[in-house]
Amino acid sequence: MSREAAALERLAAALERISPPGAELPDFGAADAWLWAAEPDRLVPVAKVSRVDLALLIGIDRARDTLMENTLRFARGLPANNALLWGARGMGKSSLVKAAHAAANDGANDGADAGADSGAETLVLIEIHREDIPSIGRLLALLGTSERRFLVFCDDLSFERDDSHYKSLKAVLDGGIAGRPGNVLFYATSNRRHLMPREMIENERSTAINPSEATEEKVSMSDRFGLWLGFHPCDQGEYLRMIRGYCDHFGLAIDDERLRAEAIEWRQTRGAMSGRVAWQFVLDLAGREGVRIAF
Question: Given this model, what pLDDT does residue 24 score?
Answer without folding.
Answer: 82
